[in-house]
Amino acid sequence: MKIKRKLGWKELPSGDFLEAGSSLNFETGDWRSKKPIWDEKKCKSCLFCWVYCPDSAIMVKDKKMIGIDYRYCKGCGICASECPFKAIEMKKEK
Ligand code: SF4
Ligand code: SF4
Question: What sign results for the dihedral spanned by CA atoms 71, 74, 75, 80?
Answer without folding.
Answer: negative
